[in-house]
């Protein structure tokens, strides 16, 4: 498997975003894609490890699927793990911690499973390297054993810290939206960089920055490092190739109309610092403003927003007032679409109409709905309008 033939990879995803991540994987050119709860499995080569880590906007991490087998006893688990070609991947000096989880399985003790897997890998590597002791001072290879319905999936984590850690956010506001979720909201809106985008509850600016990165086709992983950069089977030359490809694909000449506001001046300071760190300070307009005074400019734009939640940011009355004001602002934007991520059951009431589409998503552990409101004519209205403006006979 290692080095030569195809490698089976898993992009782990938050619940509800599997289809978004599957689309991203296909857009990278990888075809054999399987979608399950919380994971998208696909086949690639060592270069695919680099590309997936650099480019996937809404996945949590990229894992190598080493094996999947039935394990109802510790013996099953030990033998299944020991049979794998660990020395193909893990060099003699590597650090190889084992993480684990178990759900609806007879092997329910996670620490015991971790211990068995570690022992099995050590035994296999002892045979391969002819040594009794591993210093574990080199590259990091995190092995995970995940048990579900007595099926063990054994993986190697190529990513390290989750993919949401893009590197631009040094400070955080009280309840930040993860970068991966913010990117997913932009992708689900089908926003195009020619259209205005506005977030009236922008907080630390994550939705706006992720939108600007999408608008300019900036690979989200360009500013960070990954565990697999220290792996012999994923040589430095491949990382350099993937990064050069990504730099060549940047479209930083595309004009963007991305703006946001928040009532909290500290949040706007954090957002400005993040936009600057991302190299996008000139592309994102930010101001301190209550939602009721927000006046997005342009036609056929998108509001994409994550309003404050009662349980985390102030009281329910304030949340209701904010949603009511958002509904009033939206009344003045007849050509705009709106995408609101909220756990509140009152969103449709305050928007004065049912959502055109609702999608269940989890913001961390909080169950939310993405309320989707499409403008009359929506994207098609925008395209039609644009075509009329660009046709030779138009004034």
Automatic annotation (TrEMBL):
A GO term for molecular function: rRNA (guanine-N2-)-methyltransferase activity
InterPro entries in the cross-refs: DNA_methylase_N6_adenine_CS, RlmKL-like_Mtase, RlmKL-like_Mtase_CS, RlmL_1st, SAM-dependent_MTases_sf, THUMP_dom
Statement: the UniProt record of this protein carries the keyword Membrane: no
Database matches in Gene3D superfamilies: 3.30.2130.30, Vaccinia Virus protein VP39
Keyword RNA-binding among record annotations: yes
Signal sequence interval, chain numbering: none
A family per Pfam: UPF0020
Chain ranges of the THUMP domain: 48-158
UniProt keyword list: Methyltransferase, RNA-binding, Transferase
Name the record gives this protein: Class I SAM-dependent RNA methyltransferase
Organism: Paenibacillus cremeus
């Amino acid at each position: 498997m290692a080095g030569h033939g195809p490698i089976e990879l898993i992009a782990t995803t938050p619940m509800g975003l599997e289809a978004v991540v599957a689309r991203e994987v296909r857009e990278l050119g990888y075809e054999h894609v399987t979608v399950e709860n919380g994971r998208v499995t696909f086949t690639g080569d060592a270069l695919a490890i680099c590309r997936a880590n650099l480019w996937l906007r809404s996945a949590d991490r990229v894992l190598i699927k080493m094996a999947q087998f039935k394990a109802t006893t510790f013996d099953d688990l030990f033998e299944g793990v020991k049979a794998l070609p660990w020395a193909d991947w893990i060099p003699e000096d590597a650090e190889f911690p084992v993480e684990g989880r178990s759900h609806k399985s007879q092997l329910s003790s996670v620490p015991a499973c971790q211990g068995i897997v570690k022992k099995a890998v050590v035994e296999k590597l002892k045979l391969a390297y002819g040594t009794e002791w591993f210093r574990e001072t080199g590259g990091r290879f995190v092995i995970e054993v995940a048990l579900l319905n007595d099926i063990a999936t054994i993986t190697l984590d190529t990513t390290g810290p989750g993919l949401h850690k893009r590197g631009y956010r040094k400070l955080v506001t009280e309840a930040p939206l993860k970068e991966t979720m913010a990117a997913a909201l932009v992708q689900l809106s089908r926003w195009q960089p020619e259209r205005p985008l506005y977030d009236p509850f922008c907080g630390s600016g994550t939705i706006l920055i992720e939108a600007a990165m999408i608008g300019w086709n900036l690979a989200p992983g360009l500013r960070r490092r990954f565990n697999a950069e220290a792996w012999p089977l994923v040589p430095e030359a491949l990382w350099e190739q993937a990064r050069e490809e990504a730099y060549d694909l940047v479209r930083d000449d595309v004009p963007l109309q991305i703006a946001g506001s928040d009532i909290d001046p500290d949040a706007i300071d954090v957002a400005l610092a993040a936009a600057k760190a991302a190299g996008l300070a000139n592309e994102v307009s930010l101001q301190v403003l209550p939602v009721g005074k927000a006046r997005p400019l342009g036609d056929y734009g998108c509001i994409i927003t994550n309003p404050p939640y009662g349980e985390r940011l102030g009281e329910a009355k304030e949340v209701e007032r904010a949603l009511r004001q958002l509904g009033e602002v939206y009344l003045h934007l007849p050509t705009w679409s709106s995408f609101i991520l909220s756990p509140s059951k009152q969103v449709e009431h305050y928007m004065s109409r049912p959502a055109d589409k609702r999608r269940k998503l989890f913001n961390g552990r909080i169950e939310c709905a993405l309320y989707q409101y499409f403008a009359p004519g929506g994207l098609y209205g925008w395209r039609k309008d644009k075509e009329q403006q660009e046709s030779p006979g138009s004034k």
